[in-house]
Design brief:
7 strands; 7-stranded antiparallel sheet; Jelly Rolls; mainly beta; 90 residues
């Protein structure tokens, strides 16, 4: 039995996820070449997750424990070479 409901949202660019305060638990990212994805707590807020990718492919990043708490709506501020990302949160 799960302790928390887990939700997901697929995005293809930068901007707010429009999910409000959340604990991000997993990021699945597809990149077309070496790239980067950066998530901040709100637009212009502190960087909470910053991931670099070395080559084209799909990367599954599981965040242990209770995830990363975003006090404000998670915002993708950088999506270099990212073709799509699915963010899992509770």
């Amino acid at each position: 039995m799960s302790e928390y409901d887990v939700n997901s949202k697929r995005v293809t660019g930068t901007g707010a996820l429009s999910i409000g305060r959340a604990r991000v638990r997993q990021v699945v990212t597809t990149v077309s070449a070496a790239g980067r994805i950066t998530l901040t707590s709100g637009s212009g807020g502190p960087v909470m997750i910053d991931l670099d990718f070395q080559a084209a492919g799909t990367y599954d990043i599981f965040i242990p424990g209770t995830g990363v708490l975003f006090a404000n709506d998670p915002h993708i501020s950088t999506a270099t070479s990212v073709t799509a990302a699915t963010i899992f949160w509770s």
